Amino acid sequence: MTPEERALFEKRRRARNIAILLVLVALSVLFYFIGMARLLRA
Amino acid sequence: MSDTAMEPGQGGAAPLPASYDMSEVGDWIALLKPRVMTLVVFSGLVGMLVAPGALAMHPVLAGTAILCIAVAAGAAGAINMWYDRDIDAVMRRTARRPIPDGRIQPNAALAFGVMLSVASVTLMWLATNLVAAGVLALSIAFYVFVYTMWLKRRTPQNIVIGGAAGAFPPVIGWAAVTGDVTLVPVLLFAIIFAWTPPHFWALSLWAHDDYARAGVPMLPVTDGARRTRRHILAYTVLLAPLGLAPWAVGFASGAYAVVAAALGALFLRHALAVLRDAQDAEGRSLTRDAPAKACFRFSLTYLFVLFAALAADRLVFGP
Question: Is Transmembrane among this UniProt entry's keywords (chain B) (predicted)?
Fold first, then answer.
């Protein structure tokens, strides 16, 4: 793997990790609010 | 892909600036067919808005239901792209998609689609009810197994029966609010079901070379352009009165009926223009399919305006 290919790979891996982190945080927030909404409705 | 095979220090390369490249994330989003998602989300939202009790629904739960409809549509699209990667590669319109272009591995796309399908149905169940989650699961299964795997490559009626998959969102939206499925969501389903054939056949009239190359038996490929033009008109004749059905059953006001009648008349006019387009002996257009392209564009306007009119009608004149 050339340094350029490796740089590209690392950039893409970092982007993928950031995207997964954002999705997980968003899901956690969503589950919290769904839980609150259902509790309030009950 | 194994990260351990490329640990820093191997190969003697110097550390490179840490930044990120979002193009791969863009490819994953492209797998979800975001343009198709727009119509799905809109029709699902209208299904929710016109349902009794919609305004009393908690906005977080309503937003989650819409998110689930969008993600489920995207998930089904990703599985579709996985299954159809061979024909996507030979069609000009789809050759640059992430899988045929080699930017995403097929099995990764399949796993992504299955994971999102399960997540969207589970989340819908948690946020709303089992009926909405069940219909959502049914819509994914219908699109993947009935349309993509069974009908698409076997029959020119593929988009007639397969069109049902795209007609589910208003039913899901309605069920998310009420927990049941009654006559009105079934009518909304029927409207989209009848709208799908003229919409796709108008597109396939000018894209039939692509479909023929890929071996997809779209109606213009198997039966010719002339017969396709007649079929477009036939389904538009069916669709125009169906658009009035919410008014006929007393669900919408006369104002909606006026809009629906005008839209139906305009759609019929476009379908007639497609039928009367200047053609050669085999029914191929001599005008570069200008009427078919106009009909395709109008079909999108038709559905958006009709459903927006119904939602506005219920919000203004509804109980």
Answer: yes
HEC-encoded secondary structure of chain A: CCHHHHHHHHHHHHHHHHHHHHHHHHHHHHHHHHHHHHHHHC
**Does B180 touch chain A if contact means CB atoms closer than 8 Å?**
no
B6/A1 touch (CB, cutoff 8 Å), yes or no:
yes
Q: Which of A12, A36, A40 sits opposite B21 (nearest CB)?
A: A12
Look at A18 and B18 and tell me if their CB atoms are within 8 Å.
Answer: no
User: What tens digit of pLDDT does each residue of B7-38 get?
Assistant: 333 444 444 445 777 778 889 999 999 988 89
**What is the CATH code of the structural domain delimited by B24-180?**
1.10.357.140
**B58 chain-A contacts, CB cut-off 8 A:** 37, 40-41
In angstroms, the CA A10 to CA B156 distance is 46
| CA separation for the pair B2, B52 (Å, rounded) | 52
d(CA B186, CA B189): 5
Interface contact flag, B22 A10, Cβ < 8 Å: no
For the stretch B181-218, pLDDT in tens is: 999 999 999 999 999 999 999 999 988 888 888 888 99
Calculate the average pLDDT of chain A. Answer: 88
Distance CA B70, CA B40 (A): 7
B147 phi, psi to nearest 5 deg:
-75, -60
User: In terms of CA atoms, which chain A residue is nearest residue B19?
Assistant: A11
Rounded to two decimals, the pTM is 0.88
Q: Summarize pLDDT for B46-96 with one digit per residue, the tens.
A: 999 999 999 889 999 999 999 999 999 999 999 999 999 999 999 988 999
The answer to whether B22 contacts A15, with C-beta atoms less than 8 Å apart, is yes
Query: Which of A1, A11, A41 is closest, CB to CB, to B20?
Result: A11
Q: Which two tokens stand for residue B135?
A: 């219909």
Q: Which CATH class is domain B182-318?
A: mainly alpha
